[in-house]
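Workshop exercise sheet. Pairs work together: one partner reads the sequence aloud, the other fills in the structure field after running the prediction. Swap roles for the next sheet.
Pair: D.N. / O.F.
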Amino acid sequence: MEDAAARFLAAQERAALIIVEVPALPSYLHELAPAVRAMAVGDAASIPRWSAPWQAEGRRVFATAVPPDEPSQWIPVAHFCRDPLIDPRLSAEVWLFAPVTQAPGPPVVACAEGG
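Structure field:
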């Protein structure tokens, strides 16, 4: 699942990702999507602090969660799932959200399609 998410982000021009509660994702990004700017934050309330400067740089911003103070300003753009039988201790899914102002062209990727 992290592999599929990293590959999705690598295909996005000037991507940046704010990571909330997906601890394995930075390793995959480092290896598969080194051009993607990424920041792991402790909670979703920190997302606006990182998204605003990256948007000002012209980056396409994604997050693995939605800021609690502005949920209607973010839309889901991709959904990646892992079979829980592989290792039930790992998270079973990763959602990627983008600001409404940067509404992407690609549709939401369903779990069955996303890996």
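Discussion prompt: DSSP finds four helices and five strands in the chain. What would you look at next?
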